[in-house]
Each structure stands twice: as structure tokens, then as C-alpha cells.
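Course assignment 3, question 2. Fill in each field.
Student: A.L.
Task: Predict the tertiary structure for the chain below.
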Amino acid sequence: MYAFIDIETTGLDPQHDRIIEIAIVLYNGQEVAEVFSSYLNPGRIIPARIGTLTGINPRELETAPAFYQIARRIVELTEGKTIAGHNIRFDYGFLKNEFKRLGYDYQRRQLCTLRLARERLPGLPSYQLGAVCARLGISNESAHRALGDARASLAIFRHFQKETRHSSSPFATATVLPPGLSKEHISALPAETGVYFFYGERERLLYIGKSRNIRKRVMSHFYSDLKSSRERELKQQTREIRFIRTGSELIALLLEADLVKAKQPPFNRELRQLHYSYGLFAGEKDGYLNLSLRRINGEADAQIGFRNRFEAERFLKTMIEKYRLCQKYAHFHRSGGACFNYHIQRCRGACTGKEPPEEYNLRVKKMLQQFDYEHNSFWIFGRGRNKAESSLVLIKNGIYRGYGYCPNSALGQGNRRLQKFIRPGEENQDVRRIIQRYLRENNGDQLKIWPGT
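Answer field:
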């Protein structure tokens, strides 16, 4: 499900300017499901050039709602959806800052039709919305108005969506391969789960990655419109690609983490750092369990550690949303009164005393329990590298012991026999988080957890 968004603003700086109009068009992949649009009162005079460009009469904004009055509606309309638009980073930046002023962390996946146009229509003199619409024969009679532009960006997406459905080429997205690599080389990569390696000149290891589809993931590194200078540099330096099939996604994750720490490839930022500088701490305030983030500084009572403050805050914000915690007792609301989540019914009222401590603390304890495994010792069985084998990961006495592969015929032969197939692995916080996340997000036929010894 997509939420195509466009905004009109008082200027170009999301830190200082404000939104004066917003439109959201929900698209379920086949048809428009819902449309929302509204003027917004920016609380300031809009520049004359903005009025001229958009045709919006400043008097119409005087009686329009302020952003906080429709904030909950925006959250509801976009929750669980990919927000999309032409140069969506602009719109997303304004939305994030508007929500930040309300004490709310607005996070959504994004899709940019400007980037799609650059990939699918190389060589255009301009990729502005009007130019792309003209190239594709799309009419936009309400240009520079939020709803007209949101509908136009959806029309662009639907054009490329239809085009892609009729293409069987794995190179439907424009790619430019680095010197020394051919399409045949990429096509020879397996569309299977595993770990891949980028090498530069003189077989220098540049990057290690993992994917459930190695070929598709490797192709994404070579798109013609990479935004990051680091991504472009990796692309230019790559001369060879190697891979290891793992069958199991969990083993791919564990192997990637292990190899990145051991090899320290220059283009891997995640998983390289072994030091955790920030921690999540739990205390008590007014009878409520209070969560805080601060530097560890040798303290041993952190619930979980993080590499930096940004990673710590991102994690805690996710937990606040998942467990409907109060921002006041979870680090993010330091002023008096109710927190923003209470106003949008994401907090049950600990900040106002409406929710009693004993009820609130149960949810906090449930959140903290996720840092422990449900069982003390267990096996995780999954796919092998072929149909004749299975993958296995061993947790014994609460500690990760390693992973391996065994013939399917060995699965019923007991723990002692299975341990002979295990390649020893080192327990660390990254490994623990990888396994815990995998256990939370995977269940069913491909995952079996058996209590061990």
C-alpha cells in the first residue's frame, strides 16, 4: 500500500518554513483507495512568490487547521504504508520536522518517482514533475497544488508499474556496471540466500553483504542513480564479486556479522564497531518504570548497548510505538503535561496519571524481557544449502554456540550427535540481537525451535 504525498510550503527549509497545504492519495497497487487534502495555517505570512506560484490565497489559510490538528490523521493514513512522491525527500523532511516539533518521531519507508524517472528515462534535460509528466503524456491541470501534484506522481508510478509488469528482464531498472563486470557475470550470480563479497584491485576486500536473493541485491549496488557518494565509490572500485550460499537467512546474518568484524571491510559501517557507547537503563520515577539513554561509562546494568546515541534513540522510539509506552517515562518528553503520543491515543495516560503504574509497568517489563531468550537452551532449524540438508543454530545455557549444517537424516539423532555439526561461534551483542530479531519475525514452516539440553 502506498501513500502518495505532496505538500506546498512557505519556503525550502524544513527547519524554519512551514507546510501550507498537504494531499495524500492512498493507492493499493491497483486503484486509488482514499484521498485526503487540506490547507494548513502556517502561523506566519506566506511570501508573495509562494502565493503566485501556487495560487493559494493567504486569506484561505487564516481559518485552516494548524498542523497539530491534523497530525493524528496523517499518522493514521500513512501507518504501515510506503510514502511516495516526486522528490519525496523534500516532503518527508518537512513532515518529520513538523512531527518533531510535537515530540513525535515520524518514520516511514519512501519511494521517489523522481528517482524512478531518472532510472527509466535516462537523458532527459529535466526531471522536474512537469517535465516528466510531459514526457509521459500525463496531464496535470493543478500543477503546484498539493492534490494535483500527488495525483501526477501516482500517474508516473502507475506508468512505470505497468511497464515493469511487461518486462521479464532482470535489468529492467537501469544499471551501469563497473569496469570488469558484465551482465553475464551478474546473471550468473545465484538468486539464493547467502553472503556476497565485493573485491577491488589486487583482490582487496571492499564490502560484505547478505541477501535472500544475492543476484537481485548485488544489482541494486549498481543502479545508475546512486545518491550516496560512498555507494558510487564502492561501485567504481568493484572488480570482482564472490559469494557463499547459506540457504538459511539466519546463518547469512550471523556469517555476515562474523566476517565483517574479522575482516573490517572499508565500505561496511554497520557491524564493524565492537564498542557500545550508549545504553538503555531502567529505573523508577513516580512509581513508573522509567527508561533512559546515556553513556555506559563502564556501568554493568544497561539493559542493552548501542554503538551511538542515534542508534539508541531509534531503537527506543520503535519500542515506544510497539508497546505504547509513555514518552514522559521513556526519555522523549521532558516538559510538563501530556506527551504527544497521549494526544494521538498511542499512550494510555501514564503522563497524566490516568494509567496506574502497575498496568504501565507490565508493558515495560514485557519490553525488557525481549532481551532474554524464551528458552535457556534450544536449536533453530532452517533451510540448508540443498534439499538433502538442514541448517542449525545452537543456543546453550543462554549463550550462542555456533551454526552448522547436517544431513536431514541426523535431525532425530539427539543433541550430542547434532553438536558435532556445529561450527563454533562467538557470543556478542550483535549476535544476540540478530537471533532475537529473527525469532520475533520468523515462525512457521521454515523455523523450528526445539528445547535443547
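Instructor remarks: Confidence is low (pLDDT under 50) at residues 167-173. The radius of gyration is 26 Å.
Grade: pending
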